[in-house]
Amino acid sequence: MKTKIVLMMVVILALSALTKKTSAVNSNYIIEDDVKYYIQTDKSIYDLGENVEMLYEITNIGSEAITFNFSYTPEWNFWVKNNNENLVFQAVTGWWTMGTSFTLQPNDNKDFSYTWDMKNAEGHLVELGAYTAIGGLDANMGEYGYTQVPVGIDIIPEPTSAFLLSVGVFGIIKRNRK
Question: Which domains does the chain possess?
């Protein structure tokens, strides 16, 4: 009985990986003080080792111009946290003491983008599982923390690995039955 359950789990894993469809754009936003803070990833489910395209956009939805001032540059950042809320990666780790600012007129927006290669801070490929991609204004200053917007992503085995795993398990089960 135990063998059948393991076999069924492996088949389900293999079939789900092999039949995985490319998911649609994955996004989330918050609105604070007439500004829409938006994050998007190019999809919500990724094969291990794929690049994750992230976009963070700020839009003035109010009727007056809004200016953002920073003492450091760059003024943005992207973070990735694992399911335990531990920081796995952040795009910017050093800032320059150079004042920057930008102004958004009504209905104007400003975009920031980054491609994450699924490697952690030490340069190793991350593990399979659920993660949170976060975009936000940062510039190494706490005052913009409320602009951080999260969106969930899942990292699954790439189809070839899932297929080979299922073939291997079938072989072991078959051999053990003899």
Answer: 22-157 (2.60.40.2360)
